[in-house]
Amino acid sequence: MPKLWDDTIEAHRRAVRDATLDTTAALVAAHGLSAVTMSQVAEETGIGRATLYKYFSDVETILVAWHERQVAGHLQYLAEVRDRAPDPGERLAAVLEAYALLHHEVHGSELAAHLHRGEHVARAQQHLRDFLRDLLAEAAAAGDVRDDVAPAELATYCLHALEAANGVRSKAAVRRLVTVTLAGLAPLRDSRSGRRLG
Prior knowledge:
mainly alpha, Tetracycline Repressor, domain 2, 2 domains, 73% helix
């Protein structure tokens, strides 16, 4: 097949897939997880049921694909935030704030609770831990973060501490939580001299 034809077919497939993912997520948000059927998705998207079934076997499969796309987008966004900051300490602070704000915005829905059990979530969480570990190691080498605790342990600390963003009511409270988390990462200093230890 000519490349233009291939590209056109691929663009059409992506458009069908994206429309299906977005429509299904909107239906679930509006009507609840158990109320959405493949027939409703087909009707709302304007895609024939036979075509829809070529892409997805059921609503659950659509939702997992939607969630995978969301998670990948969040990870890409965190990488972009990292790349905009000029030095290791600022990169770490910017990423932690962005992560906490993302966590704050998507908490609490039936859909989020249902989808956070999948294998794709475990892979994404490992990717996020590794991403933070590398940021923390870089910040520790620059003297911006304590170096008496392994970066992998500090990454776990950050993720657990920032889970509390789910329970706060405002973005200002999320930012205060990030400030407290960053304080726990600060290099140790001698209380008498103020000099950094280690």
